[in-house]
Amino acid sequence: MDLYEQSKISKRAGEGIVRSLRSAELMSRHAIGNLLLAITLFCSAGCLDASVTRVYNFTVQPLSVTRLCKTKSLVAVNGMFPGPTLYANEGDRVIVNVTNTAEYNITIHWHGIRQLLSAWSDGPVYVTQCPMQTGQSFVYNFTLTKQRGTLLWHAHATWLRGTVYGAIVIFPEYGTPYPFKAPDEEHVIILGEWWYANVEEVETTALLSGGPPAIANAYTINGLPGPLYNCSYTDTYVLKVAAKKTYLLRVINAGLNTDLFFSVSNHKLTVVEIDGDYTKPYTTDKIVLTPGQTTNVLLSTDQLAASYYMWASPYISAQNVSFQKIQTLALLEYEGFTTSAAVLSSAFPAANDTNSVTTFSTSLRSLDNSVYPEDVPQTVDRSLLITVGLGIKPCDENHICQGPNRTKFTASMNNFTLVLPDVAVLQAYFFNIAGVFTRDFPDNPLFPFNYTGNPPANQTPGRGTKATVLPFNSNVQIVFQDTSIQGIESHPIHLHGFSFYIVGQGFGNFNSSSPASFNLVDPPKRNTIGVPVGGWAAIRFKADNPGIWLVHCHLEIHTSWGLSALFLVPDGVGPSQSLPPPPADLPQC
């Protein structure tokens, strides 16, 4: 399906793509019209070609937005919250001209995009680039290789991704149909979190205090909190549908710190794609997404003509933590419905419903057919066991800290907290700048212990800018192991530069018998894995993409605390396996 065909599918969906009862605000019909016009213009420029170049212009700017009866100035793109959707076909080259007019330094990350030979455009601040300062611009340039479905883009400096985010919609190559029933319409559903305060201030306050951050004041669907929140009855996303149709919902969790369940009352959802990779169809009444995950689902409008609530609610695996308990609601409205009240089916899942999360995550399988075969590594060249979890560090002198026993929270992988330098690590690697990072991140914990049992007495990790080297084209297996230090919880681990196969997962400690349960035939393929609470997850991938790649927890507070590491993949042989020099406009520190 190409962009022109998609624009025809979406034409009668214009109001439903992003419509609130206060339709004049932000993601309005006018904005939707501009998007559809842009799609048509792009197609006129060459949709008949095998691949084309899509050009977008992003202006990062302040924007005043009112939610929950309070107005604040936030950082947004092109005056839109959520930001604009990028549309392209598999195989297309995408160029995004980004200009920063906001008061904060910023970068943009294209979450889930492989960035083959384009690591300079990946976006994590001080990893692949220095930030764009106020008044600066940078051109992100990448090609969509063997990916199709839904991904997302977001800021990757401080907590700016709390408001600077949007969808990436990748259609199949021109002339290639979907491997499932073609939908009558498609719609982007972005889940998020909202704070009264600016998200940058929430992060700053938490880091200064050493304690947990302030909880979100609301969850949102397409930027709107819905009727359960104060002053929000009219701030409700509405999706208009017709009976006996099939709709493709492209669901994204753009939230900062919360896994979210998503469901549509009285309707089944059939999963057909996750994180840019097709799946075998899996039908369920609800899905769950960690921050950074995406899921495409088919919905059939096979119910009585009425208005039905769509909803998102939190999954909280950690014990004794504060969180926003009020769900966000949106409306699925059938044409010609006559009932005055919307239908809300069954109770929301418990916030600690790990059984539902496990059932969902272990039920997913890659499509793996003759058209879309999967190349799951059957052998392993490099095997790593990486512990993920929290820790503590001493309070700053003359401060009163709010972490455990007046300490500060920190976090680590293999007992090392990542410290970002003031020079981009990729630049330091490419130009051989000494003293910026080391290549001694351990393949295994230096001090093994009962990871999910009683925690060790010393809970203060080391600190540094450490990378581990993954030889080019090596088959890599990583087991991410949760720990009980400061409490077990699920960690959504995101790997930049690669998609990976989730070959196994379980509870407790990974051990020598765990690989017996691995799925090496059709495991799901993702870029972000929710490591089970008090458990482990095993992934495999081929290290075929040269560069410096960040791996980190996608709970934003954990990233701020340093739950991250670096992978260095050196060049292979020849230009087709080597990272080219940086673009001339790459921001300098």
TrEMBL record:
This is Uncharacterized protein. It comes from Diphasiastrum complanatum (Issler's clubmoss).
